[in-house]
Task: inverse folding
């Protein structure tokens, strides 16, 4: 079975502090992993994906197959980072490329 | 260019009524997905279309739920005999073209079943 776990429903940090949003997954094959973000009153949008290995808005995420994790990190949080963050997995077998989402972490960056 | 659009943005209905939710994809996107976002359940996959066919319907929660896609474009999600537990935000996403595998989401339809 495919499963994505985000253990923290809520995460609150101060501006300028480092932030890490945790994501663990369960999948028997080699998945594609994504982070999606939903800012207040906006639609869900892609933040980054592991195959791109890029940094978006200062965020990075490294796929750790040994620990089956894909944690999202940013060294210095900004107030505009406050949003709902979803980790998602796309199974590479089966062909549908659907996304299996975690339940999300609401990040609040305080001034 | 225009993104994914969905209509209506809000729908309030009575238990037992049928509802239709519409998704207009980004032009040229061949893949279309429906998801449901509800409190406590997060985002759940419902159904996937490639063109007009639906090779993956594994997420539809019951036979009251159905979806179709015509002309490789517009999709309609139909919920028959709605129940209160169907209340949720229904999201449509599409992918294809140059941004292979990135799913672009619509604004959603908020369904409330009284």
Result:
């Amino acid at each position: 079975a495919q499963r994505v776990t985000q253990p923290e429903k809520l995460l609150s940090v101060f501006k300028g502090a480092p932030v890490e949003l945790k994501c663990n997954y369960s999948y028997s094959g080699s998945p594609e992993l994504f982070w999606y973000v939903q800012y207040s009153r906006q639609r869900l949008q892609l933040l980054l994906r592991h195959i791109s290995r890029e940094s978006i808005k200062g965020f990075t995420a490294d796929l750790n197959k040994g620990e089956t994790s894909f944690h999202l990190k940013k060294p210095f949080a900004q107030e505009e980072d406050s949003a709902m963050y979803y980790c998602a997995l796309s199974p590479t077998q089966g062909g549908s490329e659907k996304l299996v989402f975690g339940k999300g972490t609401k990040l609040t960056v305080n001034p | 260019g225009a993104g994914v659009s969905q209509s209506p943005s809000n729908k309030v209905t009575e238990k037992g009524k049928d509802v239709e939710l519409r998704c207009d994809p980004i032009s040229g996107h061949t893949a279309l997905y429906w998801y449901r976002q509800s409190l406590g359940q997060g985002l759940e996959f419902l159904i996937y279309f490639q063109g007009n066919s639906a090779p993956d319907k594994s997420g539809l929660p019951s036979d009251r739920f159905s979806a179709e896609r015509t002309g490789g474009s517009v999709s309609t999600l139909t919920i028959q005999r709605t129940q209160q537990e169907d209340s949720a935000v229904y999201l449509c996403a599409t992918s294809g073209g140059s941004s292979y595998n990135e799913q672009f989401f619509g604004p959603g339809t908020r369904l409330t079943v009284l």
In short: The interface with chain A takes residues 3, 31, 33, 35, 40-45, 48, 55-56, 59, 91, 93, 95, 101-108 of chain B (CB under 8 Å).
